[in-house]
């Protein structure tokens, strides 16, 4: 939707260029995912470095000579540090943000030490994988992900990430919460795939191309359903959302109608005007009735209507 909108705003007809930008934007989501995961690793390593240097001070205190190492010994943080999958993915995408901006790691570490999540964990006398996992999950969701300075850095680094940050953080929190104890000779943590499968990636390309290339045809489908609205008065985002939804109705037989409607109503609520979702829902509902009456809607598979 955003790529099609950008195309309209730039008055561009270079499909290949815009498609390349679309896939680059999606690929950048993986970079954001890796950057957020690597922050956990760098925070742990930074704390270990601090503890080691403090213990070697000439006038080290008793606490500095015998520090609480529960945080740096956290099993989940160490699994992330030792993950070949994560290391390879970061090397492949040349992710080294925190090596060049370690001041953000120090800021995060300072906020972590002040948090109740950290203090309660460090004071706890229990020692289990479940406790370590819950701590890291809560630490990420309650302290790291909402950090304003981190958000500002990510926004400045790549503007397209503004919409991706919540999705990436939700995925990471889910992965952390599902981690299990390491088994011998088995990979402890695997980087999530960007696409579920090749069909997933093909869908992105097909939906983009079919919506752009059939722009006029798709527009005609709903113009007659809005007699009280001049074409110019329909918000551009709303028009794009309608075209994409209609494209799925007519050109993607395997996608259930309800799935299409729900997806685009959510997009409308997020990106368009407060009343857009009601407007769009009314048009799509009328279109479905007409398509069903004229046998224009062809969906394959069970439960797709």
Structural features, described:
Pfam families: NusB. By secondary structure, this protein is mainly α. The chain has 2 domains: 152 residues, no CATH class; 96 residues, NusB-like (N-utilizing Substance Protein B Homolog, Chain A), CATH 1.10.940.10. It is 68% helix and 0% strand. It has 16 helices and no strands. The model has no long low-confidence stretch (mean pLDDT 90).
Short description:
With 305 residues, the chain is an all-alpha fold.
Task: Outline the fold blueprint.
Layout lengths: L1 H8 L5 H41 L6 H4 L9 H7 L2 H9 L4 H4 L1 H13 L1 H8 L5 H16 L3 H10 L7 H13 L20 H16 L1 H9 L12 H16 L5 H15 L4 H18 L12
Protein name: Transcription antitermination factor NusB
Keywords: RNA-binding, Transcription, Transcription antitermination, Transcription regulation
Pfam families: NusB
Structural class: mainly alpha
For the termini, the CA-CA separation is 24 Å
Please count the beta strands (DSSP E, at least 2 residues each): 0
Q: Classify the beta-strand content into a percent band.
A: under 5%
Supply the number of structural domains. Answer: 2
Tell me the Rg in angstroms: 25 Å
Number of DSSP helical runs? 16
General form: elongated
Percentage of helical residues?
A: 55-70%
Mean pLDDT: 90
Biggest beta sheet attributes: none
Order of helices and strands: HHHHHHHHHHHHHHHH
Give the low-confidence spans. none
Name some characteristics of this structure:
305 residues, mainly alpha, N-utilizing Substance Protein B Homolog, Chain A, 2 domains, 0% strand, NusB_RsmB_TIM44, transcription antitermination
